[in-house]
Design goal:
The chain has 93 residues and is an all-alpha fold. Helices cover 69% and strands 0% of the residues. It has three helices and no strands. The chain is flat, with a radius of gyration of 19 Å. About 5% of the residues have low confidence.
Length: 93
């Protein structure tokens, strides 16, 4: 069972899993305490538009998603959506 730890790629995989779990815990705590969960979900769904456009036009994903996400975030922050209302939350303590 422990012989799998002798493989270099498995050691790197464990190190990557450890580092990503620490980073996700820190970022997740920040997002929840600052009440940015809706923005994070919106950005995740907005990046799917980049995936769809990249697949349609034949681009690779690393070339299509990164430019699309900031563009959609800027467009959403202008409030240019028809019928959009601003959501106000209570200030955090």
């Amino acid at each position: 069972m422990l012989s799998i730890l002798s493989y270099t790629f498995f050691q790197y995989a464990l190190l990557g899993a450890l580092l990503s779990s620490l980073l996700c815990a820190c970022v997740g705590s920040y997002v929840v305490t600052r009440r940015l969960v809706i923005a994070g979900g919106g950005m995740a769904h907005a990046s799917l538009g980049g995936v769809g456009m990249g697949a349609f036009f034949g681009f690779s994903l690393p070339c299509s998603v990164p430019p699309h996400s900031p563009w959609s975030a800027g467009w959403a922050s202008t409030g240019s959506v028809v019928g959009a209302t601003s959501v106000r939350t209570a200030p955090s303590p």
